[in-house]
């Protein structure tokens, strides 16, 4: 059989040692020029293109690189940038520069004036954050930013065949936000399509043959208007000089098969990892000249693919279609670490179970080998390795954990009494004022703290010295909060490297990498743990630090934990058992910690679930099952305590309207949420639902270095008080303060406390 084509939908841009992150941050600090930043970026693109070409990819993705976010890059390309972020020179010339993108994303850049940053939220059901486009009813689109075209030329100059990748027009509109008067975003589609046509014509003029347009919105349950928008868009965008690969991912598009199969596109990409069944729906309707891109390797996880089983499933279709199928990851590899070869300290038994972005392309080549020469010696070695990996996975089961999960009953998931009774007991215990103030958990991880941790990990300092230094940091953090007048304190989490990794390091069933970084947003990278086995908690994880912090003050200090659903979603979880089973195991481990904290005298315990919503299946028909087990995992973690113990949770960047009933079912005594960028718009869901428990809407955007004024926060608190009874309201920042500096944090919190005092006097 002829070999099939190997395709790539996109590659991580951060670099295997986070070179882009460090260059960005140096540029923002004024330690690097813009040209030096661009030089680092160019070097990364060159390296990543070479790796993909070496793996057999002939159409190299261009446009997957972004200095902050690819959706923001597209907004700049389309000249859809808010006026408040534009530099005066850009207003005159009509062209957009790189610093404009940073002002949109961060609220400031090395040049130009500060302005409130644009809203940022999760990209579909991933932990990647995109900058939400702001579109007005009078929006006009035109090409105003050249990065995408420059990178096509850059790839071509290196001898590569470039395949530009950009978000499709309908998905772009779907993800955008209407500002000003309320209007139908689809009314902008005709004007937007003119700009897309101009972009495609530019590509054609550059000699491009293939363009990848991503329409992940197809994985959703679209109403008729959005379906018609897809049809009209691709009818208009068909271009005789260009072949369009229509890509969708993160779920099945089988429910739109009739719609998609009728589109005049040269190729269709299917995510066969999340929805393998959709292949049989599309095969009978594939045109004779049409290519099918098969996403058979998981672009969102790190576990090595069972390439032998994949090739068996594909053998018939590969033989029938021959060169008309492409082998590809399920989605862009943006969501995976870069290069497993960097991991020199992993146990061999674990390392052989893994594949990062670079290795996933090799897996595609292995599938190609198995399809084209199944009886070769190389193919036999590939099959033997797959069998060895599966046998190793099966041998890792922990029967005690499995039996404990099987023994759970309904009472294990419920608090003793209803919230209305717990609320009075908790108020009597803590005697908190109207609009109690708190923070979300973390305080600045200064260079001194990071340096200390690095020296400790390298055994350059003793553990006793390390802990003594962290105690001093914790003491300083408590004293700063006392001086500011915060009502409910936190210990600051100086001992923690990451809100998930820290717990994973102390739980059984978790493994860790040195360089397994993935981009969350901008220069923010996370290094998810690996859940490779059954999860349990051998020892207390946070009690000692919580006890020490509480010993420093009579004010309550929150115990700070990460919830089971977030630990699951923000880890690379094993694929041989269900995510529901993993969440239940983690929930039991966190429950043990919650009970120990309570028994140690910690009366307020926060179990963060910022990733709760991102686990939602893209189709609403599948929501109920997910929400049931996600709520149960949280309730399991929290239900072991007395009524007087106050349970908090925190959620990030979520549209709450459609999940508010599930959030209420979690039965947390207090929930804190991010609302400042939306100017309290996200609070409407809690208002409409008449949310019964207490709530802390964020009044301070921690993702920008700008300091909010007292008046600005007063306005936000007043808006919140018009939506939620004031007796239910807390006042807090949007999120943890780990990424900020003390010079930024203290004046902002000082203003937050002052704003609260103003409102206490005003609201009584």
TrEMBL record:
Residues 7-318 form the Cobalamin-independent methionine synthase MetE N-terminal domain. Transmembrane segments: none annotated. GO terms for biological process: methylation. Binds 1 zinc ion per subunit. This is 5-methyltetrahydropteroyltriglutamate--homocysteine methyltransferase. Catalyzes the transfer of a methyl group from 5-methyltetrahydrofolate to homocysteine resulting in methionine formation. The active site is at 703 (proton donor). L-methionine binds at residues 440-442, 493, 608. Pfam families: Meth_synt_1, Meth_synt_2. It comes from Shewanella nanhaiensis. Zn(2+) binds at residues 650, 652, 674, 735. The keyword Zinc applies. GO terms for molecular function: 5-methyltetrahydropteroyltriglutamate-homocysteine S-methyltransferase activity. L-homocysteine binds at residues 440-442, 493, 608. Residues 435-757 form the Cobalamin-independent methionine synthase MetE C-terminal/archaeal domain. Pathway: Amino-acid biosynthesis; L-methionine biosynthesis via de novo pathway; L-methionine from L-homocysteine (MetE route): step 1/1. Signal peptide: none annotated. Belongs to the vitamin-B12 independent methionine synthase family. Keywords: Amino-acid biosynthesis, Metal-binding, Methionine biosynthesis, Methyltransferase, Repeat, Transferase, Zinc. 5-methyltetrahydropteroyltri-L-glutamate binds at residues 18-21, 122, 524-525, 570, 614. Its EC number is 2.1.1.14. It catalyses: 5-methyltetrahydropteroyltri-L-glutamate + L-homocysteine = tetrahydropteroyltri-L-glutamate + L-methionine. Coiled coil: none annotated.
